Amino acid sequence: MKIKVGVIFGGETVEHEVSIISAIQAINNMDRNKYDIIPIYIGKDRTWYTGKMLEDINIYKDMDLLKRYAKKVTLCKKDNTYFLVNTKGLFRKDVAELDVAFPIVHGINVEDGTLQGYLDTIGIPYVGSRVLGAALGQDKVVMKQVFAAEDIPVVPYTWFYDTEYYTSKEEIEKKIKKLGYPVIIKPANLGSSVGISIARTEDELEKSIEEAIEYDTKIVVEKVIENMTEVNCSVLGNYQSQQTGVLEEVMGADEFLSYQDKYLGGGKTKGSKGMASTNRVIPARISDDLTKEIKETSKKVFRALNLSGVCRIDYIIDKKNNKFYVNEPNTIPGSLSFYLWEPAGKPYNELLDDMINIAIKDFKNRSSKTYSFETNILSNCNGLKGSKGMKVN
Ligand SMILES: Nc1ncnc2c1ncn2[C@@H]1O[C@H](COP(=O)(O)OP(=O)(O)O)[C@@H](O)[C@H]1O
Ligand SMILES: [Mg+2]
After folding, report:
1. Dmax over Cα atoms in the chain, in whole Å?
2. Does the Cβ of 328 fall within 6 Å of ligand 1?
3. Which of 185, 195, 347, 368 has the smallest CB count inside 10 Å?
4. Using one digit for the tens of pLDDT, what is the confidence trace for 27-68?
5. What is the rounded CA–CA span in Å between residue 97 and residue 75?
6. Ligand 1 atom nearest residue 140's Cα
7. Which CATH architecture has domain 142-152+226-247+282-362?
8. Residue with CA closest to ligand 1 atom 2
9. How far away, in angstroms, is 129 Cα from ligand 1 center?
10. Is 36 left (phi over 0), alpha (psi -120 to 50) or beta?
């Protein structure tokens, strides 16, 4: 029997469109002999839709058309089975049954543990990291704090909240000065380089911080590694075992890799070509020793953050001394990093198989742990007043 896979994508995030591209790429590479694929699109207004037409990229050019023909749904559990239910009209109608959910989403409100938490409350098995890993992978400050505890190298940084900036500006500026200019200012929870800019001098700082504050309440400022190589490493596995793909070297056209470079093909090209348009060299042109060290560190990151499925760990290498720093993990990387597995001998369809298998195995493993009791301690309760030992609060 085929496994019914619900591929979930979109969401209210700056990486909405990137997610659509990643999801359709994955859908096109899943083995139809093994899987029934159910596309589930979360609109920017957070409404969930399903329907065959969502597998066609062209439908997203005309949202009115999409909304007219795709079915509005919610996810429900009924008698140990998961359903997408159409909520339109008087009667509830089951539209599709699911065995496993496959989130292919990027950025806040979805990739950061929110969607994962929702799927956990329903109880459906799902591909990829769970709530904690997904959340840690999103926050550029908390991840660094975890890395420090695990001796994983990160660039010198400082952080603050927007309100603190307005009340303790001088103090914050002092801390930033200590890092040494130029510095790079980032919203702590965004992605795709949105809201990120470099301040070369103290004069440029305010404008950069104001820009980042437009996107987030939490801001991180890092020392810029000026003469650097950017290298990414994909990891596949779960908490028990991990393997790494081939390293890529990312070439940005700008002084840092911008949204333009990543998705629009370097600035002048119109229309999104997806991740394939980024300039990259595979395998990365770094020594065997450094490659080995980065692969080992990537597994360490995967373990420290409690990740699962496929992720991509991004690095910055200081060319001056060959020292490397973890820049950030991507718990659901663009294109699921398939292009780093193909040269390692794993075609995209096999990568997807592995991810789904890990999800089902992890779910079975989790189900064997006790996290709920059959007994109902409220069954003998005569209202809250007289219940001894049931002090609420
Ligand atoms: N400390 C740094 N020094 C130099 N360049 C950096 C530094 N941090 C980030 N960059 C550049 O900025 C890009 C975007 O930063 P990143 O932290 O990866 O944000 P995002 O989550 O938006 O991808 C990186 O891909 C890299 O090119
Ligand atoms: Mg990045």
Report:
1. 73
2. yes
3. 368
4. 999 999 999 999 999 999 999 999 999 999 999 999 999 999
5. 10
6. 17
7. 2-Layer Sandwich (3.30)
8. 224
9. 23
10. beta
